[in-house]
Write a structure and sequence with these properties.
The structure is a homotetramer. Chain A is of the alpha/beta class. Chain A starts with 7 loop residues before the first strand and ends in a 6-residue tail after the last helix. The longest helix of chain A is centred in the N-terminal third of the chain and has 18 residues. At the A-D interface, α1 and α4 of A face α1 and α4 of D.
Chain lengths: 160, 160, 160, 160
């Protein structure tokens, strides 16, 4: 499946937006999270940091966060997220999923979350160099599984 | 040392304020934290929950949180804390340390934090049944040490 | 219940036997284990080492191991245990439970294990200063629970 | 580097020897360990079990243990190892490294350990489908790193 484009309100840790289109040729690893989601804080974001340590300088792999707020909207606002990212030393780009739909109205469920049909947070998405969605996982993937599957996608098969 | 009274803006998970005076006769275990402090989230609050599981029905021990915000004041506001406490299933009373000093001005460092001379978060305070401050610890205390020291205080020696 | 005396084949890490009688006045914490029991290696012996770090110099608390072999008798022999204790840096006294019964025959279940009616390994025994068996627990006790219960026994109530 | 052939005294969990020659075409992951080595028990063997869970039915990847005893020779004998493997539910083939050298004498350092120039235990070896030694690591490799590197070798580059 061709990865849908992101609909993003704003970005942290990136001077310009990352788009599916511009990232063609790279493998993208996307951690969808909410800053008040305990499993995100305990499991997924620490793993995202471990991956970022490995691929921060890579030309072929891009790690990013996607803050998809579907509850506690007021509490989990962009300014609070910025303080959270700072305190937790998240250095990868983080897209703030927008709630504004194509009619200009605000939906409770943000737009990128809708387009990717995410069931909740944490969710893990991996998009291959041909912009195809290869992993769409609700919950946490353990490090061994992720390492094996991610490298399989990087190496171009994407069929693991 | 006689435990100073709390200066509190408001309370979560308690219909009325807990005061040092009213708690005389009980041992109080107080977790000073900030919701965006990673060590608080990873170590101290999970321990506070384990203690609460043991002493929720106790007449002799009271667990409580103390939200002492000294950075990211806007992000760590009471409404955000309420969502945080809900998502993390914190059921013990949480005092929100006030920034308003006796002159009616707002200090950066909240008042209870000042009075207890806390160095940061997480900090652990244990007050015995005679309202004496017995443990004043900056950082995390491991479960074994806490269990031994807390029961020593409960049993009345307080000299462990 | 009065703690039965140990029946021991030999001791590691102690120049003389520890007896219930000689230890009267001290609280004894006894970790019954087998060197090939995975839960003993992963949970109980590391906790025994943490306790030993706290009470190595104590006049009031004695930590000890009890090697009660009821399976793989040939593999878990005293010489192998000695190498195991060395590699795992176990510094507390370890009693090797004897299989020789009062008739001079060898039982499959060792004698101290029988007398204490242990259900398996790991098991935790705590004996108070009056030589009364206060804790008789099959499996692992978490650090917080152990710390609270042990100090309660040390402080003399034994009714926690 | 072409992987040297194993020199093995006997095998556990395998009705016939695994040889480098016979395994050509498969990727081999070899955990060199000693049953009394604490880091092996705590880190490496649990990882070997996680890998075995993934590749037990694989035609392209073979997990195996290599028991290379260079200390506590009497304690870490084959019969004791068999009990250890049973209790720890190790189901992959385990080679028992031989101490008998080509002159028929017993060396303190076993032969496969010598030929692979292992520095100690745990050590991890990965051999690609062309029988080339691709990973030669003393100590433990974390799951994420292993997953990435192993799949890179499986996918045929071997240059990660």
């Amino acid at each position: 499946m061709q990865a849908p484009e992101f609909w993003v309100e704003s970005w942290l840790n990136s001077s310009k937006p990352l788009t599916i289109k511009a990232m063609a040729g790279k493998v993208m690893v996307i951690y969808a999270f909410q800053m008040l989601c305990p499993a995100c804080v305990q499991y997924s974001l620490p793993q995202a940091k471990r991956l970022q340590d490995k691929f921060a300088q890579s030309d072929t792999v891009q790690i990013m966060g996607l803050h998809s707020v579907f509850e506690h909207h007021a509490a989990q606002n962009p300014a609070t997220l910025q303080a959270f990212a700072y305190e937790n030393k998240l250095s990868f780009p983080i897209a703030i999923d927008t709630h504004q739909n194509s009619n200009g109205e605000l939906d409770k469920i943000p737009q990128t979350m809708q387009r990717y049909r995410l069931q909740g947070t944490p969710s893990l998405l991996v998009i291959d160099a041909q912009s195809q969605l290869q992993i769409h996982h609700f919950g946490h993937l353990d490090d061994l599984t992720l390492g094996l599957e991610l490298m399989s996608i990087i190496k171009g098969s994407g069929d693991s």
